[in-house]
Amino acid sequence: MKTAIVNSESYEKHITGDGHPEQPKRVTAIKEKLKKRKDLIWEKPDHVPEDILAMTHSKNYIENLKNSFPKTGLKFLDGDTVVSPNSKKAVFEAAGSTIRAIDGIENNKFKKRILFI
Questions:
Q1: Quick one: which of 116, 99, 103, 102 has its CA closest to 52?
Q2: What does the pLDDT look like over 4-35, one tens digit per residue?
Q3: Buried-most residue among 2, 27, 60, 61 (CB within 10 A)?
Q4: Cα-to-chain-centroid distance, residue 34
Q5: Strand, coil or helix: 91
Q6: Are 86 and 64 contacting, i.e. CB atoms less than 8 angstroms apart?
Q7: Which domain holds residue 107?
Q8: How many domains does the chain have?
Q9: H-helix or E-strand spanning residue 40
């Protein structure tokens, strides 16, 4: 069993503006460092079914979230949550990363330590 990295290119398109800690440059730098290691498994996130999201969030919350992403520019959802047009895919793929991680652990494909980037 190896340690898994669950990653999608959409994470690098989640633009939050200069000065925000969620920077594509940070994701790229971490990936470049980790790609040098040969002892890691690289995985893509799963699609998250609506029924899984509905287990922890109301349908109203899910619909509001889906409609919260701007067509252009940046939008603040609250004091420190910034989203851009490509953030929507990143948000749902981040949830899918958790599904992929759990499945990999349950199927003994990954070690219990997983890094999401």
A1: 99
A2: 899 999 999 999 988 888 889 989 999 999 99
A3: 27
A4: 17
A5: helix
A6: no
A7: 2-116
A8: 1
A9: strand 40-43
